[in-house]
Fold this sequence. Notes:
Blueprint: E1 2-6, H1 9-12, E2 22-27, E3 30-36, E4 39-43, H2 48-62, E5 66-75, E6 84-92, E7 115-116, H3 120-129, E8 135-141, H4 150-159, E9 163-165, H5 168-178, E10 181-191, H6 204-223
Parallel strand pairs: 1-4, 1-5, 5-10, 6-8, 8-9
Antiparallel strand pairs: 2-3, 3-4, 5-9, 6-7, 6-10
Helix pairs in contact: 2-5
Amino acid sequence: MIGLAYALKGEIRSMLRTADAKPLETVSGVDVYEIEPGILAYLGGVGKVNAAMSAQLFIDRYHPDWIVNAGVAGSFQDLPIGTIVLAKDFVQHDVDTTAMGDPIGMVSTVNRVDFPTSEPERLSAILTAQGTEHRTGRVATGEVFMVKGSRADWVAETFSPTLCEMEGGAIAQVCLRNDVRFTALKSVSDRLCQENNAEEYFNYGEAMAKLNDVVLPFARALNQ
């Protein structure tokens, strides 16, 4: 069974228009839907705590074979809005225990900086076979909506990510500890090389227009 992890209601709305989609339950504020047999989706909320809590809840109740985190993200590169990026790994840029002698970004208990996704080369081949143009890259997660500036420059220089967002690294950590396969598909909604002074800076609608058309056939392929 495949679980699709979304943060925002707007991200999942077009997925719910599929013919067989139906609500299943709401538990601790987490809405769960059946998109079609073998493919469920849940709405976990914004930020790392919401993402981690909802991922653990979903794993405990539904025992998925895969969790696929789908949503929008900011790009450190000058990628067109709507570019699809398959995550190869995640880091958490807001974790800092360097005062205790740890490397920057190391997450205690699991004691690692990077959280690899599952089978990125095979999943990239699936996207290519489905005719989906995409990039593969690192995603940086943290409790901040990133804009151009010194913080974004520091994250780029320290971790060399392609994208940044607010949930995926937490889901990757939960999946690692539960031995559940994990991947993420992100659509570029804004560019950190662009000043935050234009209406098109955060283009949520355009970013999501393509993503769910890609996510459902991708999930079907994983479920085979």
